[in-house]
Amino acid sequence: MMTFFLIVLCILAVLIVWFFIERCILLTRKKEIFLRAWPKELNGMRILQISDLHHRTFGRDNIRISRRVQRIQPDIIVITGDLISRDMRDFTAVGRFCRNLAAIAPVYFVPGNHELDLPSKVRETYYKTLRGANGIILDNRSCSIKSGGGSVSLVGTTLDISIYHDGDHKYRNLNPYSKEELIKQIGVHDGCTILLAHNPLIAEAYADWGADLVLCGHVHGGVMHLPFIGGVLSPERRFFPRYSKGLYRIGDTCMYVSGGLGKIRLFNPSEINLITLRNQE
Q1: Eight-state DSSP code of residue 78
Q2: Can you list the positions of beta strands (E) in the chain?
């Protein structure tokens, strides 16, 4: 019995040590994605995705991240929500971080549930900070990305808070989301479309809407990410979420889920994501 407890204590000690080592790791996950509708003129376009930073910092003003992005030199940068946490009120450092990124490439932002949980006046201050740092907020808005005669639509959706939690901040009776609700928010788009949407757990609605590529975050890689199993827990306190991180295909729609940067995590290092897009001939 004593031997058993010693083994358990050793395993726990190793896990604790690894937990603190892992907090220092910042990965750049690279993925090449092929889309049937992708314009050949835009082959090789690179999108740098950042998601779910929350309270984490990687050096002053997140200099480790911005230096990494500077070396990569992406074509555009997208932030797929929860750049902050709902209890934050000082956005000075976030503004400096965004400004540093915007000096490298255009920065597009959609809100996550933590932004939506901010009091309305605080959220407006936060958005003003991002805009003042040259960030582009796609709050149920779209824009065109053009180069060499080719163009795609980049659309950002602000999802309703009811898909994240109810009025008491509980997770039992979450609202579903449908294609029709997305159409009400962001309309219908022709041609190749990239959709920025914080929550991947309503992937079927994005596919029904007709997105060619969806970029999400929210699930933090499932907190702990296990080989052959995937993420263990979602923010909604659901075990083994269907979509935790990586590339998924739902019909003709590709969805890439960033494991994100913040929150508690194990076997799931913080990551930014470099996505290269090509035409699938």
Answers
A1: E
A2: 26-35, 45-50, 76-79, 107-109, 135-137, 141-147, 150-156, 193-196, 213-216, 225-226, 230-231, 246-250, 253-257, 270-279
CATH superfamily of 18-279: Metallo-dependent phosphatases (3.60.21.10)
d(CA 41, CA 13): 53
**Closest to 29 in 3D by CA, of 226, 252, 194, 217:** 217
Neighbours of 179 (CB within 10 A): 15
Provide the residue type at 107 as one letter: V
In the structure encoding, which two tokens stand for residue 95, read together?
A: 């503004």
Q: How remote is the C-alpha of 113 from its chain's centroid? A: 12
Angle at the Cα of 234 (from 18 to 26), degrees rounded to 5? 40
Tokens standing for residue 205: 């609605």
Model-wide pTM > 0.85: yes
Residue whose pair of structure tokens reads 């999802």 in the numeric block: 159
Sheet holding 45-50, edge to edge: 26-35, 270-279, 45-50, 76-79, 107-109, 135-137
Whose CA is closest to 281, among 11, 34, 67, 49? Answer: 34
Query: Per residue in 158-215, pLDDT tens?
Result: 999 999 998 888 888 888 899 999 999 999 988 999 999 999 999 999 999 999 999 9
Rounded CA separation 193/201 (Å)? 19
SS3 of residue 55 by DSSP: coil
pLDDT in tens, 64-123: 999 999 999 999 999 999 999 999 999 999 999 999 999 999 999 999 999 999 999 999
d(CA 12, CA 182): 45
The domain segmentation of the chain, as residue ranges, is 18-279
User: How far is Cα 83 from Cα 126, in angstroms, rounded to an integer?
Assistant: 10
